[in-house]
Amino acid sequence: MKKLILTFILMINFSFASYSISYKGITLGEIKDFDSLDKNYLEADVTNFIARMLLGKDKFVFYNDDYKGSTNDKNIKYKKDKYAIIYLIKKAFANDIKSEVIEVKKNKFITISHDKNFNFVYNSKGRIKSKGYLEMKGGKFIKFIEEKNNIKISKIK
């Protein structure tokens, strides 16, 4: 019976796992779920007091070129994803990440290679816009580290 309860608690904990998002080493907020990836955006609650004061918003949304929603909500800070973050995390959650070269749009592509993690380089019009790695464990997304622009999304323990 104890094993059953422990297994149940672990399943609940993993299914409702939150992720933190940080920029240049400062935690900005928390991502409660990734359901919005299907609609080509990623939403986070601003949890850092200073960030909340500077933004004047309770939430922020990263969206990509395929996003069809509004960007006019006065309580949300909208930021276009120039670094293919949404595209990569979407592939990670679909457990579709593998070594390959992916054309995102004309003259924009992502090269993914694998050693112990999935390394990526996002090249846009001949310039490296984003570079880093995705950490996966057992086919599950654990961490996104973007080294060039210093963006980190990681599971809160």
Helices and strands in order:
Layout: H1 2-15, E1 19-23, E2 26-31, E3 41-46, H2 49-55, E4 59-63, E5 76-80, H3 85-93, E6 100-105, E7 108-114, E8 118-124, E9 127-137, E10 140-146, E11 151-155
Parallel strand pairs: 4-5
Antiparallel strand pairs: 1-2, 1-11, 2-3, 3-4, 6-7, 7-8, 8-9, 9-10, 10-11
Describe this structure in words.
- The relative contact order is 0.15.
- The chain has 157 residues and is α+β, with helices and mostly antiparallel strands.
- It has one domain (19-155).
- It has an eleven-stranded mixed sheet.
- It is built from three helices and eleven strands; from the N terminus they run αβββαββαββββββ.
- It has helices spanning 2-15, 49-55, 85-93; strands at 19-23, 26-31, 41-46, 59-63, 76-80, 100-105, 108-114, 118-124, 127-137, 140-146, 151-155.
- Mean pLDDT is 86; it is low at 1-15.
- Strand 7 (108-114) and strand 8 (118-124) form a beta hairpin.
